[in-house]
Design brief:
Layout lengths: L7 E5 L2 E2 L16 E4 L6 E6 L17 E6 L2
Antiparallel strand pairs: 1-2, 1-3, 4-5
Amino acid sequence: HLHGINFKIAAYDGMPLRLSNSNTIPVNPCELADIEFVTDNVGTWMLHCHVLHPVTNDGAEPGGLVALVKVTE
């Protein structure tokens, strides 16, 4: 899930694909998803997994599958 920025899904497991705008995409173990987005919304936006265990470091929050996208003018 990417907060504040919508994206298009460009590919699943290397197979080209175009879907409508989204901000959440299911990715199962051993899958790869390529997304494309335009950073036109200034701010710091979190990209994270919606499953609780992967966003912790062995149960300690925060950690794991969490990243920040920082957009400046």
